[in-house]
Structures are given as C-alpha cells and as structure tokens.
Amino acid sequence: MKKLSEQQIEELKTLSNTARGAILKMTSLAKSGHPGGSMSSIDYLLTLYNMINVEPKNPNMEKRDRVVFSIGHISPAAYATLGLMRFFDLDDAISQFRLAGSIFEGHVEPDVPGIEWASGNLGQGLSAACGFALACRQQNIDNNIFVLMGDGEQQKGQLSEARRFAVKYDLNNIIAYIDYNKLQISGDISKVMPQNIKENYISDGWKVFEIDGHDLSAIQDTILEAEKANKPSVIIAKTIMGKGVSFMENREKYHGSVLNEDQLSDALNELGLQNDFDKFKKNRSGFIPPKLDHKIKNDFEIPFNKPIIYTEKTDNRSAWGNAVADIAKSLTAEQKQFITVFDNDLQGSVKTNKFEEILPDNYYQTGIMEHHTATMAGAMSKEGIQVFFPGFGVFGIDETYNQHRLNDINDTNINVITTHVGLDVGEDGKTHQCIDYVGVMKNLFNFKIIVPADANQTDRVIRHIYSKYGNFSVSMGRSKYPPITNTNGSIFFDENYNFEYGKADKLREGNDATLLVMGTLSNNAIEISDILNKEGINLSVWNVSCPNDLDDEMISEIVSSQFIFIYEDHNVNTGLGNSIAVKLFEQKCTSNFYKFGVENYALSGTAEDVFRMNELDVQSIVRKIKNLLVNK
Questions:
Q1: Number of neighbours of residue 618 by Cβ within 10 angstroms
Q2: What single string gives the DSSP state of each residue in 584-610?
Q3: Measured between alpha carbons, how far is residue 422 from residues 332, 391, 575 in Å?
Q4: Is-contact 178 205, C-beta < 8 A?
Q5: Are 232 and 32 in contact (CB under 8 A)?
Q6: Which of 45, 128, 130, 631 has the fewest CB atoms lying closer than 10 Å?
Q7: What confidence score (pLDDT) does residue 84 get?
Q8: What is the model's pTM?
Q9: Which of 145, 97, 164, 155 is nearest to 122 (CA)?
Q10: CB half-sphere exposure, 83, CA atoms < 13 A
C-alpha cells in the first residue's frame, strides 16, 4: 500500500472540496440522493483510493484491492472519488446521476468501473467483504479488502454474524470503516437505537481504531497500521454530516435531502468552487442511454467421470452430497481452488461431510448464520468460484430471500441447494415444511430453478450446474424414495441420461389424461398412473424438473389433452401449476385443468400421514382424478 507524501495529502484536501462540489451538483441535478453522508465520508474515500492497489484503466485487475460500499446510498461520494481517480469522466457521473438508462444509479452498481458490489440493503457489505476475502485467499491472491459502513447500519444483526466469521477464519486483510457522524434518517443514532459499536467489535475479536474522519494524515496512518494488524480491523471515524457547508453540517435532514439551486449556489461559493451547474443541466438533457454490454461468463470445466447410478431406495440429499464430493475428488490441483461448499450447522442433514473429507480447506462451517452466509457465498462466487450454499428450504430460501435478491442483482454464481422442502419434511411440522420454494425463487429473474425427481436425476443435476456459470436453486425433500423406473423396471435416469435444463421427462405414456409432477411426488405419480391404467384409464405422466422454464415440446404435446392435472408438494397458488397454467393460456388451451397441491399449513407427523391428511397421497389423488373424469 502506498504512503502519501505531505504534499500529496495537501493536494487531497483541495480535491476533497472538488469532490464535495461534485456531490452537491449531482444530487441537486437529480433532485434526489444522499449528500450528507457522502460529504462526511469523502475524506476517507479519497485518501483510501490514493493509497490502495487499483488501476483505473484496468478496474478488474486480478490482484487489485477490493472496496465494498455497504452504505450504497453514498453513491455520490463513490462516483466523485472514482471520477477524480479517472475510472471514468466525472462530468458524466454528475450529469447522469440517477438518470434513467445511466449506470450512475442511486445506489452503487457494479456496472460502474471500480464498483465491486451492488448494495443499498444495509448490513450486507461486511458479509460480501468476507466472501471476497475468502475467494482471494483460496486463489492465492494477496490483497486487502475494504468495506465502508454507516453507524446506523451497525444496528443490523447480520453484521454480528459477519464479525464472528471474519475472526474465526482469520480474515485479517479485511479493513472496515464506519462513518460515525452519529446521525441517521430519524435523527441521533443513540435515540433511534442505542448501541455499543466499539465494544461490539472488540468483544468479537476485532482490532478497533478511532480517528477524526476529516484528518487525512490520521486516516492514512490508521489505514497503514490496520494493514499490519494480525486480526480484522475496523476504523471508527468521527465525522460531520454535510461536512464543508455550514448550513448542512450536523443536520440529519441532509441524509436524504438535496439543495435547491439557490442553496447550491451558496454552498459552492462557501466551498470556493465555480458554479457551472448550467453545463450539467445541458449535458443531462442531451443524454442518450448507452447499450450495456454484459459479457457472458465462461462455464466451468467438469472432469469426465461416470455418474453414480442408484438402484435402491435413497434420498436426493445423499445423492447431492455424493455428487459434489465425487466432483471434488476428480478435480486437478489447479481446479480445486474454484469450488467451495458452505454449511450452516446442518452437515449431517444436508450431506456435506464427504466433501469436507476430500477438500477440507474449501469447506466453511458458518454456524447458524444463514443471512451472512448467503451474502458471503454470493460475493465469493463472483470471483470465478463455483459456490454451493446448502440448507433447509425455510433457511436457505425463505429466510434469505433478500440476500439472494441482492446476489441476483450482482450477477453472482451461487448454487442454492435446499433439502427438507415440502410436506415431505413431515414430523418437523409447519415451521419447517417449506412449501413455497418455487414460488419464492421464481421472483428472481436470473435464478434457474430445478426440482429433481430422484437420486439419479439429482446426481446429473449437480454435475450440470457445476459446469455452468449462473445462479441455480435446486430443491429436494428429506425422505428416501425408490429410483424412478420405466415400465419394465429398468432405471429411467440411467447412465445414458444427460440432464438438460428446461427439458421435461415423460415417465409414462397415456392418452386419456395428463399428470404433471415435480420432485418428491414423482414416484407417487407413477403409482397413480399404474393404478388408473389397471382400471382402464391411461394417464400420461411428465416429470417437470424445471418449473420456471417449461419444455415447449411438452407443452405442445399436452395442450391437446382433454384433462391436465398438476400434482405438487408445494403451495398450490404459486408453484408448478401456476407456471403451467400461464403457458397453457398463452397456447389458448381449452383443456380441463386441475391443480393438486398444498392448500394450507400442515401439521406434524410422518410424511405419509401428512400427505394423507392433506389429500395428496396416492389414493386421494386416484379418487380425485376418477371423480373428475366421471363428472366431466
């Protein structure tokens, strides 16, 4: 890290004024934004960026230091700093701030050169920093990870999770910064929610520094000292909201309020800066949105190894654990740095123990800290690593939806593997019966959802997603089931089967009606078809493993069926049935259409009993289908 000369520090003091002017111009031009915190943190930012290892002309340099803006609303300060560092033209950032079609959004986004992580959802930045730190360590990149946070943000519980993790795994290259201006939207932080920021970090094992956040020499000296610490460090910087403009200083109003043109003129005069606001208004009016080029990331090389074939009754979660372990075992020494598995104190249930035995250095036990782990895993995956985040459905999906939403916005590469979904969870009861695993994740535009039918398909699914860059959500139940078979008893998903995302599998032929199923209930669907077939009703059965991206060939075939039934271990209002209904409506289908799914929270009991009580067992579905066919 570079040590600045006294002359350079004096130059930065002048540059800080220029940056404050840019902050005020862009927020006034947009008539929205957060100037107060941007002005209190700008001295630290300018000092930091002039010290660290970054290249404005090569912002994605592999060995660069990473900077995470957890307080994403200080985007004016971020853009002013990066513009002055020549990552881009500062005039563009000022004139295009918060303008539709511009990359200079209200909260920082990675489309902006120099921005690593989209944020704004407070409390997640330190977790992201942990993810970047792990990724760089695993790939032998020697660098520093900086994260900027607010003081009000320290009220968020996820930060305590991140603090503990960073200490456990000796992430000593993390240097955090807290802009301690003591104000948040509703006023004094001690009145909004009292907290012991310094003591919290000390008690979790961090090195704590306290400084004047507007003393550039102190900022530099503390950063250099923090770099030498043998533990994660945090710099608590006492600052002044609205610093530099007398009528803005120490006023919470300016957390999220901007100056009108008259006030802007007074502020620029006080800062000793030229008022060239008309130039930026003209530039803004002539803005033409550029076409953003999002490069498709490279897929991963997967070693050629034979799939595991299951011929006996087993659970999909064991198949997932065996598959990821088999992949790990087959990797070359160089490839091993590009795979990671996290665990949230569920190893025996989510079957990650075999992977840990093979690659212990790539396995991270995070304890019961799902929110932190979800964000950390997402950030780590952006560094070209295949990251697996396994957990129970209610923890890995429901509890962490906001984290996955931010991951999706950040173009991550996370594989969310959820076991224990649906009523199949049985005895654990309604709090653990995740019946919305498809409905929740289908809200995320870039997540691919997969619900495998049996252990053999699960094995191929895991191998498939390992080879692809992107976000995947793979869900499975808890119980053991026989492998799916053909009518002659042979294995359906045999050694010749290759999983193809979006492709449905026809498990049984029939021309009287169609039954579409996903996941846990696939064996039941086959049994239903076999029973009805003996009674003269020929029911075709389709396994739909990708409920959010449906097979057009399947839709083309079933659209002419007189009766279409949906059978799912999921909330009947948001699952497979609704996805199918939309497709059929688009095809102007006139079939009789019926959904069999979970209609309310269920009780605790064996999976068989719970299915029966909810009329989703084999006999109940047989009866329902027969009644509907007869009545029509």
A1: 19
A2: HHHTT---EEEEEEE-S---SS-HHHH
A3: 37, 14, 11
A4: no
A5: no
A6: 631
A7: 98
A8: 0.96
A9: 155
A10: 26
Residues in a beta bridge with 564: 514, 593
The answer to whether 322 and 308 are in contact (CB under 8 A) is yes
Adjacency order of strands within the sheet including 563-571: 505-508, 539-543, 513-517, 563-571, 592-598
> What does the pLDDT read at residue 298?
76
Number of other CB atoms surrounding residue 319 within 10 Å:
25
d(CA 85, CA 96): 18
AA letter at 609: D
The Cα 68–Cα 53 span in angstroms is 14
Question: Quick one: angle between helices 6-30 and 75-84, nearest 10?
Answer: 130
103 DSSP 8-state letter: S
**pLDDT digits 0-9 by tens, 278-288:** 999 999 999 99
Res. 365 pLDDT band, cuts 50 70 90: very high
Q: Where are the beta strands (DSSP E) in 404-509?
A: 414-419, 447-450, 471-475, 480-481, 505-508
Q: Which domains does the chain have, with CATH numbers?
A: 6-285 (3.40.50.970), 314-481 (3.40.50.970), 505-631 (3.40.50.920)
- pLDDT tens-digit map of 495-508: 999 999 999 999 99
Q: Please tell me the total number of residues recorded for the chain in this structure.
A: 632
Q: How confident is the model at residue 305 (pLDDT cuts 50, 70, 90)?
A: confident
HSE (side-chain half, CA atoms, 13 Å) at 306: 5
For residue 490, give Cα distances in angstroms to 307, 315, 330, 494. 16, 19, 28, 8
Angle at 357 between CA 354 and CA 361, to 5 degrees: 120
Whose CA is closest to 81, among 27, 36, 23, 126? 23
Cα(583)–Cα(544) distance, rounded to whole angstroms? 13
Place of tokens 């079957």: 351
Q: What angle do CA 520, 597, 400 make, to 5 degrees?
A: 70
Question: How many Cβ atoms sit within 10 Å of the Cβ of residue 371?
Answer: 21
**CB–CB of 446/408 below 8 Å?**
yes
Q: Does position 296 have pLDDT exceeding 90, yes or no?
A: no
Q: Which residues contact 266 (CB under 8 A, 6 or more apart)?
A: 247
Instruction: Record the tokens describing residue 6, joined without a space.
Output: 């006294």
In DSSP terms, which residues pair with 491 in a beta bridge? 485
What's the pLDDT at 292?
A: 77
